[in-house]
Amino acid sequence: THFGFSTVTTSQKRALVASVFTSVADSYDKMNDLMSFGWHRIWKDHFVSTLNPGFSPLSSTSPTSPQHILDIAGGTGDIAFRLLHHAHTVNSNPNVKVTISDINRAMLSVGKSRSAALPASQQAALSFVEANAEDLRKTRPLTPILSQTEQTFFDPATATSGLEDDSVDLYTVAFGIRNFSDIPAALAEAYRVLKPGGVFACLEFSKADKHPLFNSVYKEWSFRAIPLIGQLVAGDRDSYQYLVESIERFPRQEEFRDLIKGAGFRVSGDGGWEDLTGGVAAIHRGMKP
Ligand code: SAM
């Protein structure tokens, strides 16, 4: 199967992304481990520890002002839970709250159930919000899914809330942005909601073509094995085929860095990104001046 990506329109991409993540929600966590040999956990741990949420440069005992972290496309919670653990436990800073947001209620609902295993203080600092990253003025708290036939994609016409300008200290997005239909719109929204001095941080698949041999093994794995594993384990070849193609189409490190700069962010002098596992994934960061 091939989705013939170059010809899909924005609304077709939206519908495709909606059905893909509704379909994979229940098997998502297990599939991540299988497809990446568990590497995604190492990348996510690294992403969160380099962001060091809740760190106070003044003193580990003096209280800091409250920090608001927004985890966009947060799905089943892998990043949000790590951010909370790092802030509350590693940095002993309970003054950090995390909003986990996604366009898909099926993914968020899995996250909500998983969060029941977190310490009560972390659960209290966590909120679940339905939103499209491309327009954060329209959001609503996660509403439970009542029937199997119910629409799980967030409909902005049902919004009851929104995110304010200059209200967020740290914006994270992991393995989400390549699914967005309008990446510049999402970057503009990230810029709007961040406080001056706030940080945009993105973990995403990227290009690993610096080492041709490694790259050819990686490409074989992606294009042959992943759709097959998707078929065998999740009973869903097409969704995993989509995932592989969306990685292929996502801009290279330099191009994506330039999009981030184009939205007004300052990026660090050494390129503005960090390659992980030879560029299979990369972390990009920008600061709102
Ligand atoms: N961040 C999580 C992680 O690292 O495990 C989940 C990543 S998952 C691969 C991608 C998520 O992006 C899905 O949950 C999907 O619903 C969400 N998504 C896709 N398009 C979106 C959009 N326009 N706005 C918000 N979330 C979106």
UniProtKB/TrEMBL annotation:
Methyltransferase required for the conversion of 2-polyprenyl-6-methoxy-1,4-benzoquinol (DDMQH2) to 2-polyprenyl-3-methyl-6-methoxy-1,4-benzoquinol (DMQH2). It comes from the Eukaryota. S-adenosyl-L-methionine binds at T76, D102, N132, A133. GO terms for molecular function: 2-methoxy-6-polyprenyl-1,4-benzoquinol methyltransferase activity. Pathway: Cofactor biosynthesis; ubiquinone biosynthesis. GO terms for biological process: methylation. Belongs to the class I-like SAM-binding methyltransferase superfamily. MenG/UbiE family. It is a peripheral membrane protein. The gene is COQ5. Keywords: Membrane, Methyltransferase, Mitochondrion, Mitochondrion inner membrane, S-adenosyl-L-methionine, Transferase, Ubiquinone, Ubiquinone biosynthesis. This is 2-methoxy-6-polyprenyl-1,4-benzoquinol methylase, mitochondrial. It comes from Podospora anserina (strain S / ATCC MYA-4624 / DSM 980 / FGSC 10383) (Pleurage anserina). One of its GO terms (cellular component) is extrinsic component of mitochondrial inner membrane. The keyword Iron-sulfur does not apply. Component of a multi-subunit COQ enzyme complex, composed of at least COQ3, COQ4, COQ5, COQ6, COQ7 and COQ9. It catalyses: a 2-methoxy-6-(all-trans-polyprenyl)benzene-1,4-diol + S-adenosyl-L-methionine = a 5-methoxy-2-methyl-3-(all-trans-polyprenyl)benzene-1,4-diol + S-adenosyl-L-homocysteine + H(+). Its EC number is 2.1.1.201. It is found in: Mitochondrion inner membrane. Coiled coil: none annotated. It is an enzyme of class 2 (transferase).
